[in-house]
């Protein structure tokens, strides 16, 4: 699976309930999202992942976030999850995810962690939390990464600061609180989903043309 196979914008549904995940997933898919993450510290996350994978898994990359153990990787793949997003750099977890055929986006915050993650087989790097790795920091770290490394910012990303991170070399994002929070109305969620993806697309096209 190449990094260009999916739009690198991860919709993070932290706290989502199984009974609402399909309706929210439909809004995301209709808006153009191709990567959906249910963090493992959500209520019954495996049930939500299984529902989403069965409904949208043919066209959209469905999986879990906040993955911190090899055992969790096994649980996620057992219900059809194909995306592994982690908050940290754990080479054993990364290797297990790649051996299971998953798209792997581990978290990192230093050059050492970034290179360890890539060496273990990571498909993309998640700089998390972005509040601690502002654009200037990510720009500096990118200078020592292999060419073509997909760098994503996660944590505190909004439509207003996407441009700064993209100017620093980020080509993808994880969208959490600016997209979904438990209890949000369907109308507000739809507005957030469309606003964020439209902002990303409007910013990414000029950058691709300049590359």
From TrEMBL:
Pathway: Carbohydrate acid metabolism. SUPFAM superfamilies: Aldolase. Keywords: Carbohydrate metabolism, Lyase. Pfam families: Aldolase. InterPro entries: Aldlse_KDPG_KHG (IPR000887), Aldolase_TIM (IPR013785). The keyword DNA-binding does not apply. Belongs to the KHG/KDPG aldolase family. Homotrimer. This is 2-dehydro-3-deoxy-6-phosphogalactonate aldolase.
């Amino acid at each position: 699976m190449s990094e260009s196979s999916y739009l690198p914008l991860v919709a993070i549904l932290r706290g989502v309930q199984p009974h609402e995940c399909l309706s929210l997933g439909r809004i995301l898919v209709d808006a153009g999202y191709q990567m959906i993450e249910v963090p493992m510290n959500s209520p019954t996350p495996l049930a939500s992942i299984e529902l989403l994978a069965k409904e949208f898994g043919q066209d959209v990359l469905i999986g879990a976030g906040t993955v911190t153990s090899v055992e969790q990787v096994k649980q996620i793949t057992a219900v059809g999850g194909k995306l592994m997003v982690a908050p940290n750099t754990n080479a054993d977890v990364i290797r297990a995810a790649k051996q299971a055929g998953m798209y792997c986006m581990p978290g990192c915050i230093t050059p050492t962690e970034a290179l360890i993650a890539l060496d273990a087989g990571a498909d993309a790097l998640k700089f998390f939390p972005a509040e601690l790795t502002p654009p200037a920091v990510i720009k500096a770290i990118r200078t020592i990464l292999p060419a073509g490394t997909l760098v994503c910012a996660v944590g505190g990303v909004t439509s207003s600061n996407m441009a700064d991170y993209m100017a620093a070399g980020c080509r993808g994002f994880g969208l959490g609180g600016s997209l979904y929070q438990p209890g949000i109305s369907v109308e507000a969620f739809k507005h957030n989903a469309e606003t964020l993806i439209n902002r990303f697309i409007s910013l990414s096209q000029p950058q691709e043309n300049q590359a």
